[in-house]
Design brief:
- The protein is α+β, with helices and mostly antiparallel strands.
- It has one domain: Winged helix-like DNA-binding domain superfamily/Winged helix DNA-binding domain (Arc Repressor Mutant, subunit A).
- Helices cover 44% and strands 23% of the residues.
- A hairpin with a 2-residue loop joins β2 and β3.
């Protein structure tokens, strides 16, 4: 399930170009907030996505 979620998250980020961290859990109703955050953390550590602070929010972007 984690691999499917990672693939789905990467597809969402590629399609939208960016998505806020707060908006992301709405795309994964089957996961808890902690699971979504862990997924973002793992993908960010492997440099597959870029997590950037925008004011009071965080935004995910695809790595160039």
């Amino acid at each position: 399930m984690i691999q499917q979620s990672a693939t789905k998250l990467l597809a969402i980020v590629q399609e939208r170009q960016s998505i806020s961290l707060e908006e992301l859990p709405l795309c994964f109703p089957e996961l808890t907030w902690n699971q979504v955050f862990s997924l973002v953390d793992e993908l960010s550590r492997h440099a597959l996505i870029h997590l950037q602070r925008r004011g009071f929010e965080y935004e995910l972007r695809a790595r160039a």
